[in-house]
């Protein structure tokens, strides 16, 4: 009743005329109504100049000291996280923070509530809440400061404000882009310890609104819950409220951008297995092109994250696997082509030395005696079959025998790895490369999705 009586009192009207600098242009007339002095309660008077009070509510705030805390109540939060940055290891959120407490010094008669101008918050006591691990924060002030002060008859004060803040979030990117990140929004009292104020969520998990309807570009909110904790500092134990939410990255974008192109490059490198070994330019061009394309894809995927990030991510493992298969296809052709050229080289001297030896033997027959001719033939036969010579039967020094034995051993070892038919290399590669690539993919996706 007192409030309506106050509003029904006479108003003093003040008319301001604001004119532009040039008299030829139109002017604007603004009407501002200033109420006369009124108060809630009977017989109230204005305080002295040194007393801080709410204008129009001098009787309500008589003896009120904003530097002394009252009883403290609950808190609720409307927080839709707007952006989460893996590069910066933080997230940016615009939150509507609503704090509620009871101040018995602000009780008045009736069961009504009224909203005060936000600028009057400077005349009231408000809790010193701050956001833990906040990097940057600001209060919205368009068109005025986005704050709300509402008083209830029982002395309850509702203080709401709209804040945009950037909060640190330590992320484990070892399973990127199939990772799940858990971030926190923590509210704590800066100066009042738990003996002075107690922070509680007003309605538990229901105190947080907006997260379930949140839509992000790379993440999906899996779950969230609220916690009440304490922060132990050197100056005491301070109350802390925690909102913990779990975000799962949407992997479909990365499958289309990175996984599918890298898999297609691996399959492209297998095309060279169906090209003959004699087509050197074609097979070399396919191998080098796929290697360079894969290198470019790897550099592009790593540039999206911080260079100081030391995690070996899941996407790096897959790109490394694809690069290994592409490089292996190029090495396979090098081995097959080298074996083929070596086989052709061994076939040519098998016929040519016979002709040369015939010419040499004819010359020896004409120029030397029959005895010399026999010695030459016997010596040549020993040189040709030197690989199968029993070194123990030859009259040679000990170190020469050791060299001969080692030479025979090396020839046998190389014989095990000698490819008798280079064409079989491509034949087996057509089956082994796709088979091993499929097995590696099965283990890769099973590990990163289910473990």
Automatic annotation (TrEMBL):
The lineage of its organism: Eukaryota, Metazoa, Chordata, Craniata, Vertebrata. InterPro entries: GABAA/Glycine_rcpt, GABAAR_pi_TM, Neur_chan_lig-bd, Neur_chan_lig-bd_sf, Neur_channel, Neuro-gated_channel_TM_sf, Neuro_actylchol_rec, Neurotrans-gated_channel_TM. GO terms for molecular function: GABA-A receptor activity; GABA-gated chloride ion channel activity. The keyword Glycoprotein applies. Residues 258-368 form the Neurotransmitter-gated ion-channel transmembrane domain. Keywords: Cell membrane, Chloride, Chloride channel, Disulfide bond, Glycoprotein, Ion channel, Ion transport, Membrane, Signal, Synapse, Transmembrane, Transmembrane helix, Transport. Heteropentamer, formed by a combination of alpha (GABRA1-6), beta (GABRB1-3), gamma (GABRG1-3), delta (GABRD), epsilon (GABRE), rho (GABRR1-3), pi (GABRP) and theta (GABRQ) chains, each subunit exhibiting distinct physiological and pharmacological properties. Its main location: membrane. Residues 89-250 form the Neurotransmitter-gated ion-channel ligand-binding domain. This is Gamma-aminobutyric acid receptor subunit pi. The chain crosses the membrane at residues 251-275, 281-299, 311-331, 431-450. GO terms for cellular component: apical plasma membrane; chloride channel complex; synaptic membrane. It catalyses: chloride(in) = chloride(out). Pi subunit of the heteropentameric ligand-gated chloride channel gated by gamma-aminobutyric acid (GABA). GABA-gated chloride channels, also named GABA(A) receptors (GABAAR), consist of five subunits arranged around a central pore and contain GABA active binding site(s) located at the alpha and beta subunit interfaces. When activated by GABA, GABAARs selectively allow the flow of chloride anions across the cell membrane down their electrochemical gradient. Pi-containing GABAARs are mostly located in peripheral tissues. It is a multi-pass membrane protein. The keyword Mitochondrion does not apply. It comes from the Eukaryota. Gene3D superfamilies: Neurotransmitter-gated ion-channel ligand-binding domain (2.70.170.10), Neurotransmitter-gated ion-channel transmembrane domain (1.20.58.390). Belongs to the ligand-gated ion channel (TC 1.A.9) family. Gamma-aminobutyric acid receptor (TC 1.A.9.5) subfamily. GABRP sub-subfamily.
